[in-house]
Specification:
Elements lengths: L2 H43 L2 H7 E8 L5 E2 L1 H10 L2 E16 L2 E14 L2 E16 L2 E11 L4
Parallel strand pairs: 1-6
Antiparallel strand pairs: 1-2, 3-4, 4-5, 5-6
């Protein structure tokens, strides 16, 4: 094989790889969003086993009332039913991928029950995941209440 043929072959392979990148990125974004949906469902169902898998051991979870919890504290809060998630409806979701880190931002309407009262929270959020051992795990959550208009 002469040099020109060799170069052309590598160029062709590189072009195919470049064309595949957007599809790979879309697949990764979809995978990440599916993980977020699974986490929301596990919170609503208080599925401690599923949450154990989806939450990183070094989780920092900042609620919209500025309470900060680690993984064990967050799981204990859900298990005790001091805070019960009834529904989580994300909207205006955007995904950014930075290597093995995925950042999801958006709005969410969250219905919670706390101390016998049901509240609907309108939030802006940042949800951060890291891909570890082939699986996405939540490493950070930060939410802020949107003021009533």
């Amino acid at each position: 094989m002469n040099f020109s043929t060799h170069l052309l072959r590598h160029f062709f392979m590189f072009s195919i790889w470049l064309l595949a990148l957007p599809a790979l990125a879309q697949k990764t974004e979809d995978e990440l969003l599916q993980t977020q949906v699974r986490r929301f469902e596990a919170m609503i169902e208080n599925d401690q086993t599923e949450l154990e898998q989806l939450l990183a051991s070094d989780l920092v979870y900042t609620h919209s009332n500025a309470v900060v919890e680690n993984k064990q504290e967050f799981l204990a809060t859900l298990k005790s039913q001091k805070l019960i998630y009834r529904s989580v409806q994300p909207d205006e979701v955007k995904v950014r991928l930075l290597g093995s880190v995925g950042i999801i931002t958006g709005r969410a309407d969250v219905v919670v029950e706390q101390e016998g009262k049901t509240n609907t929270l309108h939030l802006r959020f940042m949800d951060v995941y890291a891909k570890r051992k082939g699986h996405w795990q939540q490493v950070s959550w930060q939410s802020t209440r949107i003021p009533e208009q």
